Amino acid sequence: MEILETKKVVEDINTFIGSQLWLDFEVLQYDKQKLTIIGSIDISNMHDIEIVFEDIFFVSLPIEWKTDTSRPVLSILEGEKAKILNKKFQVEQGHSIFAFAPEDYPDDFGCYVCAKKIAFNLTSEK
After folding, report:
1. 122, 51 contact by CB (below 8 A)
2. Domain that holds residue 17
3. CB of 33 closer than 8 Å to CB of 55
4. Which of 4, 17, 2, 3 is nearest to 120 (CA)?
5. pTM of this prediction?
6. Residue 17 vs residues 55, 58, 100: alpha-carbon distances, Å
7. 78-84 long-range contacts, Cβ below 8 Å, gap at least 24?
């Protein structure tokens, strides 16, 4: 997946998330290099968004977390922070490190998914 395409997907995800009052996230499934994370105003009901990562290299995040939708929730690490994690985890070329910004955790809390591909599906009709 090209970096410009990846950035566009992350931007679209953040646009949707930013239109919500709040969203809680949960790891739904990891199977054969595919990680599915769902987001919902109420996790006990139908979820509103599925974020799907493919060709996973590493994952470091809680199973469930809350977000502050008034700021970007998902980003692609770049610069020095990306270099540090690339060295620490010996990330193979072609992978991007995606960072979630969970609420109620310190800013330097590592909530990461390192993958080659990202996609999303909106699952609720609003």
Report:
1. no
2. 3-122
3. yes
4. 17
5. 0.92
6. 24, 24, 12
7. none
Per-residue pLDDT tens over the stretch 83-99? 999 999 899 899 999 99
Cα dist. 105→13, 47, 75, 86, 110 in Å? Answer: 21, 23, 16, 22, 9
Dihedral sign, Cα of residue 58, residue 45, residue 71, residue 2: positive
**CA pair distance 83, 102, nearest whole angstrom:** 22
What's the token pair of residue 48? 């509103």
pLDDT (mean) for 101-105: 91
Amino acid at 8: K
Burial 92-119 (b: 16+ CB within 10 A, else e): eeebbbbbbbbeeeeeebebbbbbbbbe
Q: Residue 73 has which token pair?
A: 């929730």
Structural domains counted in the chain: 1
* pLDDT tens for each residue of 1-42: 798 999 999 999 999 999 999 999 999 999 989 999 999 998
Cβ count within 10 A of residue 71: 11
